């Protein structure tokens, strides 16, 4: 069974250089997005607590032994790489397919958050930050996937 479309395999159509650039740029945008632009707003919306129970959002110091963030960052990098790969496969097939996936996933993320958060203000805040980041990463991936070598 042939898995290629119009005699071109999706993986062969990928510009791996631009794919790597898209992954790194998307990961850096995430660091800026959650680390500099919206860290306290996001932590408050998700009700973040450090491992020892300190309420970091309200200024309490996290006094427990700090764990390495490397495993979490590695998982995030891998997840980002898969999201970007999805767009690098879909966009050459059809940019409209990528747009449909982008809108669908954003809508799905927004709606699933509503089932988890009853407070409207907290929901809108978290949905705006998380869905906004996914939207930006998706746009970066789609645009960079259009570049051919």
How would you sum up this structure, described in words?
The protein is mainly alpha-helical. The protein is built from 5 helices and no strands. The chain has helices at 16-37, 39-46, 70-93, 95-116, 120-145. It is globular. It starts with 15 loop residues before the first helix and ends with a helix.
Based on CA atoms alone, the radius of gyration comes out at 18 Å
- Count helical runs: 5
Written as H for each helix and E for each strand, in order along the chain, the element string is HHHHH
- Structural class determined from secondary elements: mainly alpha
Euclidean distance between termini CA atoms: 29 Å
- Overall average residue pLDDT: 88
Count of strand segments: 0
Write down the overall geometry: globular
Give the strand content: under 5%
């Amino acid at each position: 069974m042939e898995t290629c479309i119009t005699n071109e395999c999706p993986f062969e159509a990928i510009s791996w250089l631009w794919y790597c650039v898209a992954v790194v740029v998307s990961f850096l945008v995430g660091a800026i997005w959650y680390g500099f632009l919206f860290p306290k707003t996001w932590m408050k919306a998700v009700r973040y607590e450090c491992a020892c129970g300190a309420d970091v959002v309200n200024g309490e110091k996290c006094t427990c032994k700090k764990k390495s963030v490397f495993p979490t960052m590695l998982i995030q990098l891998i997840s980002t790489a898969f999201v970007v790969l999805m767009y690098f496969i879909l966009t050459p097939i059809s940019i409209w397919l990528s747009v449909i996936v982008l809108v669908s996933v954003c809508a799905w993320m927004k709606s699933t958050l509503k089932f988890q958060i009853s407070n409207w203000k907290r929901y809108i805040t978290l949905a705006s930050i998380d869905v906004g980041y996914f939207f930006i990463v998706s746009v970066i991936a789609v645009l960079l996937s259009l570049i051919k070598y």
